[in-house]
């Protein structure tokens, strides 16, 4: 914990950006969930005792899954795939957009408390923002109309939005931030992509993110979506009430 506090003190700018992104996403989730409740004639608190307990459980599972990362052959080794969004997507389908953003936040907070940050919070901000770009659109679409077709549309939309946002976010913010953080020329990072993926053109950040980042997000979104669609329906009664059927 002392190490985390020292990292916060030395990375005030990134932490402030992180807090601003968190506040904006919570506000968006709150407004959109309220709109969905009004449309569906629902009048219930967004979080109650059971929801808070379940949010904590799903966040903890997500944090554990986040620790099990593995590289993919078409991307440099610092890009790794994990399936931490799986329990969060299941939980957000059950409890709504606000719960989804909260689970993403708690997942990152737990990870920081256990492992700290090796990227001055840059990587943690990226993980939170990209995760929410998947969870938030999917949960909002499903919140407005809860049926199988809507769930499929939600997963497809979430995967596509995460892919587009994650790709652009890497090109515009993340890769330049890592270059500055580690004192490494951006071209050196791009060369690492070219070394493992021939589709990456020399010195081209666009080809780097298109060939390395976009496929990773597509694989992650598609795999999490398929598993969620297969298991959410039978799990839903247990998640919401603690009883089968």
Keywords:
245 residues; mainly alpha; Arp2/3 complex 21 kDa subunit ARPC3; globular
- The quaternary state of the protein chains shown equals single chain
Fraction of helical residues: over 70%
Q: For this structure, what is the CATH class?
A: Mainly Alpha
**What's the CATH topology label?**
Arp2/3 complex 21 kDa subunit ARPC3
Tell me the number of strands. 2
What does this structure look like?
- The chain has helices at residues 2-10, 12-40, 49-67, 85-95, 97-115, 122-144, 148-181, 186-196, 205-241, and strands at 70-71, 80-81.
- The protein is mainly α and 245 residues long.
- It has a single domain (2-241), classed as Arp2/3 complex 21 kDa subunit ARPC3, CATH 1.10.1760.
- A two-stranded antiparallel ribbon has the order 1-2.
